[in-house]
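Appendix B, Record 12. Input sequence as logged:
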Amino acid sequence: MTQSLITDTERAQMLENGRVRAVGQVVDPLPVVRLFTPDAHATWLLAALDPVDGDTAYGLCDVGIGMPALGTVKLSELASIVGPLKRPVMRDLYFRATRTLSEYTRLAQLNGSIMD
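Logged structural output:
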């Protein structure tokens, strides 16, 4: 089920970013994927995937309460979430990162939510 949230290409890029993070290299990657709830106000801009478990993603998490923050989330947990109208978390098919993860984070914290 978690495969439907990210493509194989996105998974490969996120795993590579995760490997770089795991060895302690300081990186500021572009987010790879944008996930969202179509019937709520939650958004995740994910950049890396834990190379050990392949399920724990790292990125900017905005659950819609005005406090977006960098953190981790399990793709398997996201796959089980449904919004108030019973719509599942979806991948933004048209998302193309235009900023680094730190810049998205800075702007989201200023605005209280991820803007794009």
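The first helix runs from residue 8 to 22.
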